[in-house]
Specification:
mainly alpha, 0% strand, elongated
Length: 257
C-alpha cells in the first residue's frame, strides 16, 4: 500500500483510538508498518510515539497489578512500535525471567545489550538468563564483557564464577574422556580463583580431577569442598573413596564407602 493511501490513514486513526484498540489488533500492525516505512524514509511520525506510550504505560499498569502475562503482551507491542526504546526490553526480560522462561528472557536481554552494549547491568542480566537457561558456556563471555565495563563489581565476579562452575560441571557430571575433563579443570580452577571459599567450585574441580585420573588432586579439592560445607555429603565421600582406592589406600576407601 502507498504510504499516503486511505487504508494507511484509516489504520492509524483506528490505532490511535484507545477504546477500539486491542493488544492483538491486526489494524495496529498495519498502522505500525506504514509509520515505520515513513520513518525509514526519514519522515517523523509522532503517532508512533503516542502508540508506544499507550502500550508501554498500559504494560506498567498491568505489571504493577501483578498481571504479568497481560503486561508482557503490551511491552511486546511497545517494542514492536519503537524497537530502539530500552525499557520495554528490560521489562520483557524481567517478566520472562520471573516466569522461568529463561531462553526467552535471554533473547529479550540480548536485544537490550545490542541497543546499549556498554551497560554492564544489561550484560549481567543477559548472563544470568543464559546461566539459568542451562547455557553457562554462552554466559561466560557475556560476564567477561560486563567485568571489563565494571571491573570492581564483586557481584559480576561471583556470577562469572557460577557460570564457569556450571559449565565445568556440565562437562564432568557424567563419565567422560580425559581431554574433556581437562577443559573442565581449567574452567573450575578459574571459578575457585574467583570464589575460593565456595564449596561448589571446589567440588566440581575435584570431580573433574577424578575424571582426568588425577587422584591426589581430586582428593585435595574434594576435601577442601567438604571443609567448606562442614563435612560434605555422600557425593564428596564417594569420589574421595574412589580416588583413595586408586591411590592404594583401601582402608580409607572402605571407611568412606
Amino acid at each position: 500500500q502507498r504510504l499516503d493511501s486511505p487504508l494507511a490513514h484509516a489504520a492509524m486513526r483506528h490505532a490511535l483510538q484507545p477504546k477500539m484498540r486491542r493488544v492483538d489488533d491486526p489494524l495496529v500492525d498495519l498502522a505500525v508498518y506504514h509509520a515505520r516505512r515513513q520513518g525509514d524514509l526519514g519522515l517523523v511520525n509522532s503517532d508512533l510515539v503516542q502508540l508506544y506510550e499507550y502500550y508501554f504505560f498500559n504494560g506498567n499498569g498491568y505489571y504493577n497489578r501483578g498481571m504479568k502475562d497481560e503486561a508482557l503482551a503490551y511491552y511486546r507491542r511497545a517494542s514492536q512500535v519503537l524497537p530502539k526504546r530500552v525499557k520495554p526490553w528490560i521489562m520483557q526480560g524481567t517478566i520472562l525471567f520471573i516466569q522461568k522462561q529463561y531462553d526467552e528472557s535471554a533473547e529479550a536481554y540480548r536485544k537490550l545489550v545490542a541497543l546499549q552494549p556498554k551497560n554492564d547491568l544489561h550484560q549481567s542480566r543477559l548472563g544470568r538468563a543464559l546461566t539459568q537457561a542451562g547455557r553457562p558456556h554462552e554466559a561466560i563471555p557475556v560476564f567477561h564483557a560486563a567485568i571489563k565495563l565494571n571491573p570492581e563489581s564483586s557481584d559480576l565476579q561471583n556470577r562469572l564464577a557460577t557460570a564457569l562452575n556450571n559449565s565445568a560441571w556440565d562437562l564432568v557430571k557424567e563419565p567422560t574422556d580425559k581431554s574433556v575433563a581437562q577443559q573442565a579443570i581449567e574452567l573450575a580452577t578459574k571459578a575457585t580463583v574467583l570464589t575460593p571459599n565456595k564449596w561448589t567450585a571446589q567440588h566440581t574441580l575435584g570431580v573433574a580431577q577424578y575424571r582426568a585420573g588425577n587422584w591426589q588432586e581430586a582428593v585435595d579439592a574434594l576435601e577442601k569442598s567438604m571443609e567448606l560445607r562442614e563435612g560434605g555429603n555422600c557425593h564428596d565421600w564417594f569420589f574421595v573413596a574412589m580416588a583413595r582406592w586408586h591411590l592404594g589406600e583401601p582402608e580409607d576407601a572402605r571407611r568412606l564407602y
